[in-house]
Design goal:
Elements: H1 5-10, E1 18-21, E2 25-29, E3 37-43, H2 58-74, E4 81-84, E5 100-104
Antiparallel strand pairs: 1-2, 2-3, 3-5, 4-5
Length: about 110
C-alpha cells in the first residue's frame, strides 16, 4: 500500500530502528514508547487489522506470536511482557496495518487503557 506508514518502513523509505526481520515480518522500536521496551512487530504482508485476516493468515498470525516470544527473550524481558494489538480506531489503532506492541521492562497494570 503506497500510503501506508508501516509499508514504507518495511520498504526502508522511512527509517526505523529494526530489531528483527525475516521473510514474513519486521520488528522495530516504537517512536513513542509506552514502556522501557516497546517494539512493534509488523507482518510484511499488508493487512489493515486483525479483523481483516482470514483462515489463510492463520500461519502468519502464529508466526507473529512466536516471533513476539523470541524477541521478548532476546530483549531480556524474563520478568514478563505484554503483547497488544488494537483493531480499529475505537480500540486505539492509528496505523491501518496489522501490528503487535511488545511492551516490557516495567510492571504492567490491569485493566489497561
Amino acid at each position: 500500500m503506497p500510503d501506508c506508514l508501516f509499508c514504507k518502513i518495511i520498504q526502508r523509505s522511512i527509517s526505523a530502528k529494526f530489531v528483527f526481520e525475516d521473510d514474513d515480518a519486521v520488528a522495530f522500536e516504537d517512536i513513542n514508547p509506552q514502556a522501557p521496551t516497546h517494539v512493534l512487530i509488523v507482518p510484511k504482508k499488508h493487512i489493515p487489522g486483525l479483523a481483516d485476516t482470514s483462515d489463510a493468515d492463520a500461519a502468519l498470525l502464529g508466526r507473529l506470536q512466536r516471533t513476539s516470544a523470541v524477541l521478548a527473550a532476546r530483549l531480556g524481558l524474563s520478568g514478563g511482557f505484554r503483547l497488544v494489538t488494537n483493531n480499529g480506531r475505537g480500540a486505539g489503532q492509528t496505523v491501518d496495518h496489522l501490528h503487535y506492541h511488545l511492551l516490557g521492562g516495567r510492571a504492567m497494570k490491569w485493566p489497561p487503557g
